[in-house]
Design brief:
This protein is of the alpha/beta class and 468 residues long. The chain has 13 helices and 24 strands.
């Protein structure tokens, strides 16, 4: 990498990019014909094309959101975005078959090493489509289906049709409509009744080209009494122009099932990260969102859980880091529709160098939902006078038997804390890193060891030079 490129990338270690080697690249801009061309190129059934077209028209008719970071949202130029780009000639099942330049990218990101060490399966998406996919043979023998979403639609159309848009309809919001119109790639994961996937499966999403839009679609169904853990990572190069990432994720946990969905997103600060994630938890099931947001120009993401069955439990544990030129508008939503349901939301944010962190949350308890328990904790750490933190909590409790707890704190690193740690032999930067790691510890302990180590390294890089 040249010195000029290194200066542009700065401390963002995933900010390099490869020369574009597109085999199919659509011209920038969005139209109904673009939507139809994507569907035709993929050989999709007519019902999917129809949904795409309806979603496109809803996207065009629906105004931009009037809340959140409206100035940044309104600066998105949809006519400059490329909505489909294919690199390579299809998904490979062997790593050696992946094109050399793409393979080198994922080698540098550590994906093959992670797979060899401990993963149950892995899928890697580059631009609009999955370029590599594998699953452990023992999982396949138990009936576990883990495919990229395009392959899932081809091979299991009846399952996809049953659940696609069942939790997040395209009419839900402007960006769910956009995703439904132009979606490509993502993961399809189906776990049969009573099967426990002991090792996590992983997906990694990489944007490489300039002015690129990535619109993966993920659907996970865990049948009765089953369990699975899914982990995804994301990154993109640093460019002077903007890219758009707008994903949709739908999770369905049947009675007694358990799904944990972990995300570590490390976007460059030229990416708009606008994501819709929602899960439904049936009787005695558990849904957990574990969500880390580092980087991006603007993130708007609020993982949601609908506690539909009695005894269901939901957790959202999230951290967000906002540096210079970044706004992390993130949070959680939990809807208690059934009795004896429980939920926990833990949100941690750090703002530095003029960054802005916002917690935006909603908890609702329906009138018919008796004996529910709700716990919400929002903590923010501000590292300098230029930075900002906001909290927008909403609670609608319609049943008096609910036990609801909410606490929030905003703090800064004190001179006494720094002095104490320096008196024990640490430098200023080391002292700050220790404080930050301690602040994030409730989140980090929820991660597999390899991811916890990587997140701590990432935060240490972000904290360099924060003092003085």
């Amino acid at each position: 990498m040249s010195s000029d490129a290194r200066d542009a990338v700065g401390d963002y270690k995933a900010g390099w990019h490869d020369p574009e080697q597109a085999t199919v690249r659509f011209d920038a801009g969005l139209s109904e014909q673009v939507v139809r061309d994507i569907s035709e190129l993929k050989g999709e059934p007519e019902w999917m094309t129809d949904i795409r077209v309806k979603a496109y028209h809803h996207f065009m008719a629906r105004p931009m959101p009037t809340w959140g970071s409206t100035e940044l949202l309104n600066s998105i130029d949809f006519d400059k975005i490329c909505y489909f780009l294919r690199s390579g000639d299809g998904t490979k099942g062997e790593w050696d078959e992946v094109p050399e330049d793409i393979k080198n990218t994922f080698d540098r990101l550590g994906i093959p090493d992670a797979e060899k060490k401990w993963l149950g399966g892995v899928t890697a998406q580059y631009e609009s489509e999955t370029i590599y996919h594998s699953i452990r043979e023992d999982l396949e023998s138990q009936g576990v289906i883990f495919l990229d979403m395009d392959a899932g639609l081809r091979e299991y159309p009846e399952i996809v049709k049953k659940y696609f848009c069942s939790i997040i309809p395209y009419q839900d919001n402007k960006f769910s409509a956009l995703n439904t119109a132009v979606w490509s790639g993502g993961s399809f994961l189906y776990v049969p009744k009573g099967v426990h996937v002991e090792l996590p499966v992983q997906a990694y999403f990489r944007i490489n080209s300039e002015n690129m839009g990535q619109f993966e679609r993920t659907l996970i169904v865990a049948e009765e009494g089953s369990s699975v853990s899914y982990i995804e990572g994301c990154s993109a190069p640093t460019y002077s122009t903007d890219s758009l990432h707008s994903a949709v994720v739908e999770l369905i946990a049947m009675p007694g099932a358990s799904i944990r969905y972990t995300t570590i997103q490390n976007w460059s600060n030229n990416v708009y990260n606008l994501v819709t994630k929602r899960a439904v938890a049936h009787e005695n099931s558990t849904i957990e969102w574990v969500d880390a947001n580092v980087g991006s120009k603007l993130t708007m993401k609020y993982p949601a859980i609908i506690l539909k069955g009695e005894g269901a439990h939901g957790e959202v544990i999230s951290v967000a880091y906002s540096g210079e030129g970044m706004h992390q508008d993130a949070g959680a939503k939990v809807h208690h529709l059934a009795s004896n349901t429980t939920s926990k939301i833990l949100s941690k944010s750090i703002s530095k160098d003029g960054g802005r962190g916002s917690y935006r949350g909603m908890v609702t308890v329906s009138k018919k939902a008796d004996n529910c328990k709700v716990n919400v904790v929002c903590d923010a750490l501000i590292l300098d006078e230029k930075s900002r933190s906001d909290t927008y909590p909403t609670m609608e409790i319609k049943n008096s038997s609910c036990r609801c707890e909410h606490e929030a704190s905003v703090s800064k690193v004190s001179d006494d804390q720094i002095f104490y740690l320096m008196s024990r032999g640490h430098s200023e930067d080391e002292a700050l890193a220790l404080i930050v790691n301690g602040f994030f510890e409730p989140f980090v302990r929820e991660l597999p060891m390899e991811y916890a180590v990587e997140l701590n390294k990432l935060m240490a890089l972000e904290m360099e030079g924060s003092i003085g």
